[in-house]
């Protein structure tokens, strides 16, 4: 089993999956989703903290697992009330900024935010800090980092592992395409950088196309079709997030190229796992979104209580293939909330 760092197994979850969005890898139709979360009561007469957890978007399996982790942390801590709210699209930067401004006006105790844009979110998060609100970033941070703690996968290293796996799948030779998601989003930038840098170590692999999916399934499908048309000898695709991987897989499937064009995706949505089982996708880089949500809330409360927090928490990632996907430890990562 190939691992990156220490990809910790997901915590057991009992009754924390509330307000789940779609399970298809496509966003829900609503522009936002609000969940009052855990109605915590103060422990030993102490303060109950109201923490706003703001993903990059709602309605994706990945983000709903982050949500479940955040709710589980609130339940374990006992003195936290979670407010979960996000836009319907990871590209809605202004929408996320507006939500954060609303939470500042509501005087929440802490913000746990996955930044839609590394630069654009800096001013509003600094405004929150000036208002006395603790700020933790998860999954996607800011540049410069303004949060007291950043809880996420080491995306550069994870994407480098994708390049290593691509080299293995292609036998060290072939044309490769890269499908990042949103330019300007730190996570997308880091995965693009990590993949390109590592791919450069393999002289037989040639990056012939880079197209952004905008974190949209239909856009990913379209750009993959364009890439396949322009590069008929394409041997491999690295799609750097869930909608990108699903769109790429569908394009390859429609052309009857399963197994001929090797696909490496990111995350472990149910349809991605199904595509891995069927052989349309050959490998997935699987994060631990449950742990990202859980640790994000834990760090926020530690910060509120004046305890030392870690500036950077790496939650790990794992390369999952059809050969290792049934290993017990891998199953915990693929199904952190249990099989449905």
TrEMBL record:
<dbReference type="Pfam" id="PF13407">
    <property type="entry name" value="Peripla_BP_4"/>
</dbReference>
<feature type="domain" description="Periplasmic binding protein">
    <location>
        <begin position="51"/>
        <end position="308"/>
    </location>
</feature>
<comment type="similarity">
    <text>Belongs to the bacterial solute-binding protein 2 family.</text>
</comment>
<protein>
    <submittedName>
        <fullName>Ribose transport system substrate-binding protein</fullName>
    </submittedName>
</protein>
<dbReference type="GO" id="GO:0030313">
    <property type="term" value="C:cell envelope"/>
</dbReference>
<dbReference type="GO" id="GO:0030246">
    <property type="term" value="F:carbohydrate binding"/>
</dbReference>
<keyword id="KW-0732">Signal</keyword>
<dbReference type="InterPro" id="IPR028082">
    <property type="entry name" value="Peripla_BP_I"/>
</dbReference>
<dbReference type="InterPro" id="IPR025997">
    <property type="entry name" value="SBP_2_dom"/>
</dbReference>
């Amino acid at each position: 089993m190939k691992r990156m760092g220490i990809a910790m197994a997901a915590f057991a979850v009992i009754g924390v999956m509330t307000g789940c969005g779609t399970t298809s890898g496509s966003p829900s139709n609503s522009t936002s989703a609000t969940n009052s979360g855990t109605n915590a009561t103060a422990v030993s007469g102490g303060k109950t903290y109201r923490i706003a957890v703001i993903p990059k978007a709602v309605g994706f399996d990945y983000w709903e697992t982050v949500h479940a982790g955040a709710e589980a942390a609130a339940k374990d801590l006992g003195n936290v009330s979670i407010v979960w709210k996000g836009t319907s699209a990871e590209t809605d930067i202004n929408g996320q900024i507006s939500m954060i401004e609303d939470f500042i006006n509501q005087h929440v105790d802490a913000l746990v935010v996955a930044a839609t844009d590394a630069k654009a979110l800096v001013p509003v998060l600094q405004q929150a800090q000036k208002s006395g609100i603790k700020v933790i970033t998860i999954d996607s941070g800011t540049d410069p980092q303004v949060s007291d703690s950043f809880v996420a996968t080491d995306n550069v290293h994870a994407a480098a592992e994708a390049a290593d796996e691509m080299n293995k799948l292609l036998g060290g030779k072939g044309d490769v395409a890269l499908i990042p998601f949103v330019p300007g989003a730190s996570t997308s930038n880091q995965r693009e950088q990590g993949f390109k840098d590592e791919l450069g170590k393999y002289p037989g692999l040639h990056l012939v196309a880079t197209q952004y999916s905008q974190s949209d399934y239909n856009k990913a499908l379209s750009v993959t079709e364009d890439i396949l048309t322009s590069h008929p000898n394409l041997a491999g695709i690295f799609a750097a997030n869930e909608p990108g991987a699903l769109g790429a897989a569908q394009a390859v499937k429609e052309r009857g190229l399963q197994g001929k064009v090797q696909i490496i995706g990111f995350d472990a949505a149910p349809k991605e796992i199904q595509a891995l089982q069927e052989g349309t996708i050959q490998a997935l880089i699987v994060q631990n979104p449950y742990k990202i949500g859980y640790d994000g809330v834990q760090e926020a409360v530690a910060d509120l209580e004046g305890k030392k927090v870690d500036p950077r928490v790496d939650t790990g990632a794992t390369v999952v293939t059809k050969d290792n996907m049934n290993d017990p430890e891998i199953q915990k990562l693929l199904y952190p909330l249990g099989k449905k």
